[in-house]
TrEMBL record:
The UniProt record lists the keyword Ribosomal protein: no
Main function: Component of cohesin complex, a complex required for the cohesion of sister chromatids after DNA replication. The cohesin complex apparently forms a large proteinaceous ring within which sister chromatids can be trapped. At anaphase, the complex is cleaved and dissociates from chromatin, allowing sister chromatids to segregate.
Record's signal peptide: none
Domain SCD per the UniProt entry, residue ranges: 313-398
Coiled-coil region(s): 270-304
Biased composition (Acidic residues): 1175-1194
Residue span of region Disordered: 1-99, 1042-1079, 1101-1133, 1145-1220
Source organism of this protein record: Perca flavescens
Protein name: Cohesin subunit SA
Amino acid sequence: MASGDSLLDSLEELDDFSDSGSDYEATTKATKRRKPPVTGLQPPKRPRRKAALRVSSTSSSPSPIPTPPNPSLQQHSQGTSRQASPRPVTRANEGNGGISAEDIYDAVRSGKSAMVTVVDEWLDSYKRSREAGLLVLINFIVQSCGCKGVVSREMLDSMQNAEIISTLTKEFNEDSVNYPLCTPGPQLRRFKASLCEFIRVLVSSCRNSLIFDEYLFPSLLALLTGMSDSQVRAFRHTSTLLAMKLMSGLVEVAVIVSVQLQTTQRQYDTENSKREQDRASGRLEELQATISELRENREEVSSMMNATFRGVFVHRYRDRLPEIRAACIEELGMWLKTDPEDFLNDGCLKYLGWTLHDKQSPVRLQCVRALQGLYQEKEFIGRLELFTSRFKERMLSMALDKDPEVAVEVVNLLLLIQQRTEEGLKEEECGHIYPLVYALNRGMASAAGVFLFNKLKSVIASDNQENDKSENAAFFQILISFYIQSEFHEHGAYLVDSLWDVARPELRDWETMTALLLQEAGLMYEEEGALIELMMCAIRQAAQATPPVGRTQGKKILGMKDKKVQEQDRRRVTTHFIPLLPQLLAKYSADAGKVSLLLKAPLYFNLEVYNSAPRLEKYLDLLLSQICGIVEKHTEATVLEACAQLASTLCSESYTFSSRAHLAFSQLLDSLTECFSTYLSDLLQGTADDDDVYSAATALKRIAALSSAKDPTGWKLFGSCLELLKSRMESRELDKELMVSALKCAAFYLMWAKVNAVNSTPAEGELNRLKKEMRSFCRVCQTCLSLNQAEIRDQAFELLCDLLLLYSTSSARSEPALQALVHLPSDSLRSEMAAFLLDYVFSDTEDAELNVENEEEMKIRLLQRKRNQLSGYCKLVIYGVLELSAATDVFKHYSKYFKDFGDIIKETLSKSKLISPIQSAKTVCLSLQQLFSEMLTEDHSRQDLGEIRDLAKRLAMSFGIDLHRVRKPLVALHMDGVRFAFREPREGEEQHVNVTFLEILSEFSFKLLQPDRTKLAAFVKSECPSAALSWPSVRMYQRSLEGRSSSKARKPEEGGDVVSTHSSPVAKRKRTTAQGSVASTIRGSWLDSSSIHSVLHTPALTSTAQRQSTKPLASKKPSATQSDISSDLSEDEFSLGSQIRKVRPVKRHQLSSSQTGPPLDQQDLNSHLTLLSLIEDEDEDAEREEPEIEDYESDSEHESTYTLPSTRHTSASILDELFE
């Protein structure tokens, strides 16, 4: 059906659209000027057959529906005065005897009743009395909004819609902001679905009769249109949803009527073409009458659709509430798809184009889904060409939407555009989507994988016309090319996982992959490496059925069917690769990168298959032979680690063939030990040349790698390695490879010896010998900590942490017989390990020495190594190997190195509180005391004190929000701090040099309870000399105990004590003074500022956007301040954040009361309710314009309020806080 003049010629005219000139509003303006006395909802007093002829045919504004709205629908906007109800409100269905509004609401809310039955009962009631039936339906809608009010018959007869809504507004529950459509939990989804189902069934049941009675639906839509314009969010949201669902039902009815009209018209034309004597008598007249009736029905439905579109959709699609905008756009998509003749034009498509820029993701999501429904229909593509060309760039940019769900749907939409449109997407446009296959979000990556797969398939289809290469071989060729060109060569697992759902058959074609690898002159060198990596990733994916690291898919439990498929895939991998893997290892044995990948394949095998047939045992022998050959051929750490991991798996006692694996690797260790022993005497005597040192180092490196998988104690290498280490350190010939390998071999010997001691019952002499060996090794490692070779030093520290933990007291608790093996570190070793932390972990010297080439990669490796070392040291503290006080060297770097080690230090801090809360608090205080003493001994400044206070603030936040649980630890911390501040000076020291420490201690005061504050205030007076009570630092601390926020006292008072130096315990080695972190400085300056207490004007919250004020607002702080607040507060700072948030409602309340003029008790509530205007002022109509596309800017970083030009009169009122 043509839409006539209502259609726009092109999208270039979109910006000229303005709903202010529509018929609906023209009538509204006229009634505003005249304001005749019109009663409430009255049925039209004109014949139904002439309904379409009585409406105005002129329109100054385009509309998707050709027929103007029914004037009866506009009665709700005539007048704004409200008459009082003459008598109290009564039950709406009193005396009717039919279904009540409460019955319908209960049925919809429960979701368990059949909606057809509910609607049939209401229809029976309506047929008995249409006024009473309409009243029941209206009260059901009011109840669905969460309103306690009831519309009586008298109100319906005597009041305008605006007056009815104003009356109902007073009946809202002021104690709760929730209403049925926004109730959290599954109940929301159930109620919304039931409500929409009720409306659908209602329209379906009335489509042949009651829709055209000119009473029910016009009256209902008039009320919903008025409610959709209310400032009350519950009214606006519920009525908009119902109106949109009614509109969808009317669109379906309009399509049905149009089809019936076309069919009847064809029948009439056929009958009319017959000769007069062949026509059935009266047939033409009957068909003509039917055509006339159908045209009237079509015009009646079009009138209601037009009024709803202009009265509700045009205003609510840009409502400030995203749920309302999303509901409008969702239904618009249905209209476009259901009735393309009337809706699929530029005048309606522009709304989808505009909302692509919406700042709320649910609205963008509904918009993209609506577009998907359109692009799926081939017959719509021609009408979408102009829209596609105009908004394609925006859709491409949305592939990187901050909401992953929206991004997934956008990629699916772009795939439809690529497949259905003639032009599709250019190669550079596809380049926006390809990198998404490496995204962490699995849904997004899978969608991009589908897009990539379809693109690859289209390229393969065009290439196969030129050559006869097999389709899967061509697929792997082009996939390899894409993987190499993408330059993400370490993320093959993510690419395979992205393609797994759509290209699983191709990725499980092991035969094609191995054939490509084994054929001569098949692939290039780089292509072989890429194919091996992708093949290994596919093997892992098939065998384990789990996504790679970071792509979590929730707690997905594999079902029986998935487990069966996984087991079948694993068996197929095993049977295919068992005979071919030795061939692949033999071909690529010289390439370290490729062979290290291939060695991972047996880890995914079902290794029991080796025992299933005698012929497969030879392949096991071939595999073991290849592994041993690779170990003897390579010295790269990655290859040796892969061999050791595979050897550990094959030697597992759970397999019957493990004895053969043990034999093979024992023979390999024999040969390696013999090789090492050959050069040992020369090494100890210092007569070995460089070749001898290299040969011994490589043999020892291979032995160390295998020792991680197989028990090496039988080869008695500990003594040799220890002698070698001692001799090399004495001669200062520090060969890195040789000494690191010797350290590893000796450490693995001690580890396996401890395991054997636990699993058996060794003699006492054996235990004493093992403890002596442990003591000797610790002394050697302690010496290594002072060497200038970083690799040797780091390896010694890491092995010390592991072995001290393995031989600790806690490890022997379950085995009392092993108490003789407990080895505690000596005082000198503890000091050396603490100094190692200060010099090499909490230090930036090594970072500065890195060369420019591969700088980023080296920094990452260095940071990872430091994190491992710090973790090892913290474990020693947590498990009791070191005293809790040893953690001071860790805690005092919490602030400066928070970015690199914050998570480790925070976890150590929380674990220490579980061990001993009081001792942990004292350790925190001790770390601050050490930093303060270091500051006094160096060139001190107020900036250094500020950095220590920032650290104290961060440490204070770690005590949590349960103040009763941390009472004793906090009191102990404060008492230790006060004693330190007023301790007696040593000989040669000044008096009370530590009193400034009280400023640092005040950062912990806000966590104290009032009784503890009083107790500590008395303690300060008892410890403090009477003359010192007036000192600034003491006064600041006393004020913090009086309950004031420590943040208010951040700025030190002028004329404070000058900090002087004095002797105090310092670290063993001199360290660089810690520079203040940028984050701490920013946060400190923010707390000093008064932005929290600024009195900004709070705008009144209205249905769409705040009306522009004639008076300029007061100057505001930059918006970045608020974003800094939210980003700067960590989880630990919950307490401070809650204090800040509490300020805002108070300020807002004060502003509201001041802005609304006279006090509330001096004003009548009814006078405020009249501000809920349902119509527009003429001056607003003159100023209002339809938003241009440029007005909508996508904000990919901030989720802010969606603000659009106002479409309704709004005013600040006392209802703002209640309804918003």
